[in-house]
Amino acid sequence: MENEKKQDKSILDRVQSAFTGTETIEKVETPVEKTETIKQPEIKEQVVKKEERKDPKGRMIDGWEIKDRVYFLKSKKRPLTYSVRSSGIYWFDEEAGYEREIKYTSNQKTPFVDEMKGDHRLEHIVFRSGALYVPKEKTVLQKLLSLYHPHRDKLYLEHKPKEKAADQLDMLEFETDALIAARDMDVDMAEAVMRVEIGSKVSEMSSKELKRDLLLFAKRNPVLFLELVTDENVQLRNFGIKATEMGIIRLTSDQRTFTWGSTGRKLMNVPFDEHPYSALAAWFKTDEGMEVYSNIEKRLN
């Protein structure tokens, strides 16, 4: 009995070991290769910012000032109605390199025919009593008249108060400078300047008449006056004219040659197609001319 029990126990132990896996099993570990992870560079999307249109309250949209505009005919006449062409006109586009047809319509957002969509409802452009008022809401018509129309600045003008004020300010500054220069100018220079304006009559004027006419000339035409004042040849021309009037030098009847008044000896020939006294003024700056100038100056004094 005991032997049988031992055999049963040994069989039971083997069965349990088979189910529980108590037998030693050798594990084989396989090496695992480590792979490095390569990080891809982050690609940031480039957002192209479009030029933002300014708020209408800022009075500017895409560089165009939003405002009412007035246009005037250049002619002094003021007809009751006057129409300018609103179709069949062209504007040369320098960027595109060709002429583009433009027209004014009531139902399009552009004056360029190649940008229009659908039907075109043509509108007339009419000046009334020589003027045309275009409200700020009609931007297409304003741009057509101010930028693209071939008759711009030829048949009509846009009223620009700021530019007009700037021009007036410049003219006032010119006038002020001219009057100051005229006030402080010596008699010889005043005579030289006025000789350009009124010719040989200046020789018959008194000093007060000369000063009065000089100031009036400066006020009437300040730009020309300042140009004459800064022209170094003005005094030299006047010097030559005075010498001729006094008989110190003589200009031949064909106005081609200057000679000494007393001897008739030739001083210089006037280049072709040049004013005699302008040529003489330039000649006075040469070595030979400076000697003659000094000689004449002694005789005048």
Order of helices and strands: HEEEEEEEEHEHHHHHEEEHH
Q: Please state the overall shape, judged from the principal axes of the Cα atoms.
A: elongated
Main beta-sheet annotation: 3 strands, antiparallel
Tally of discrete structural domains? 3
Largest sheet, spatial ordering of strands: 8-3-9
Poorly predicted segments: 22-28
- Provide mean pLDDT, rounded: 80
Separation of termini?
173 Å
Query: What is the number of helices?
Result: 9
Helix content, binned percent: 40-55%
Task: Describe the protein.
This protein is 41% helix and 15% strand. It folds into three domains: 98 residues, no CATH class; 71 residues, no CATH class; 65 residues. The chain contains nine helices and twelve strands. It has 301 residues and is α+β, with helices and mostly antiparallel strands. Strands 8-3-9 form a three-stranded antiparallel beta sheet, covered by helices on one side. The chain has a three-stranded antiparallel beta sheet with strand order 10-11-12. The protein has a two-stranded antiparallel ribbon with strand order 1-2. About 2% of the residues have low confidence. A hairpin with a 5-residue loop joins strand 11 and strand 12. It is elongated and about 145 Å long.
